[in-house]
């Protein structure tokens, strides 16, 4: 199903010679939009700046202004910056993503290796997203909804999300600084607020062998909030009572009665 997309007034013009279009040389952020406005906008803008710096691109000040006054019941604001232009679009969150919030996902793991060249842009959110989307299509062909990349057996991230897990009373995610993965705004915000629901927070590594033994596994991203892994590599997992509580903490639903 096609999702209607509007270009926000004040956006720049994309031309056929733009390097973002020709080579994927650009950066973007996808921000969840609520009736109160864009959620975690400052964190997304800060990451946009870091990603752009990795490509040697400046983010024009008008990019932040494109988000002014934008509201939606459940929307996706996409901010895009290329060497020659910047623009923003707004669309409803697709039903497939809403369903993942409600019902969870079938998650599989796959090894991608440990070697990253010194010019790697893996920690930047660039427009070169074809490989990420190809990974999700590959997962679908395996009968899964999403994929968790591994490096030397260690969990890293999903193609479009960070992994978060619960081990006892500790909410965990993979540290971005030492692994070269894209730092997650949603995962970071969740861990910052973990104490509000009586949980500790920790950034640490976990192996694929240890992951089945944790209490709950989620993929975290701006539009999904959290999507619980209801199966891992084909093995079913029981629904966690923490999923509705953490989604409510993130403002995606009401807490359970």
In short:
The chain has 257 residues and is α+β, with helices and mostly antiparallel strands. Helices cover 23% and strands 28% of the residues.
Strands, helices and their partners?
Blueprint: E1 6-7, H1 19-23, E2 27-34, E3 37-38, H2 41-54, H3 62-65, E4 75-81, E5 86-92, H4 95-103, E6 105-111, H5 130-141, E7 146-151, E8 154-155, E9 162-167, E10 170-173, H6 185-192, E11 200-203, E12 216-221, E13 225-232, E14 235-236, H7 242-249
Parallel strand pairs: 6-7, 6-13, 10-11
Antiparallel strand pairs: 1-5, 2-3, 2-4, 4-5, 7-8, 9-10, 9-12, 12-13, 13-14
- Indicate the low-confidence ranges by residue numbers: none
Strand tally is: 14
Q: Indicate the structural class.
A: alpha+beta
Q: Major sheet: size, sense and barrel closure?
A: 9 strands, mixed
Element-level helix/strand string: EHEEHHEEHEHEEEEHEEEEH
Fourth-level CATH superfamily of the largest domain? D-amino Acid Aminotransferase, subunit A, domain 2
Which range does the strand content fall in? 25-35%
Main CATH class of the largest domain: Alpha Beta
Q: Identify the CATH architecture of the largest domain.
A: Alpha-Beta Barrel
CATH topology of the largest domain: D-amino Acid Aminotransferase, Chain A, domain 2
Question: Can you give the helix content as a percent range?
Answer: 10-25%
The rough form would be described as globular
Q: Span from first to last CA?
A: 34 Å
**What average pLDDT do the residues reach?**
92
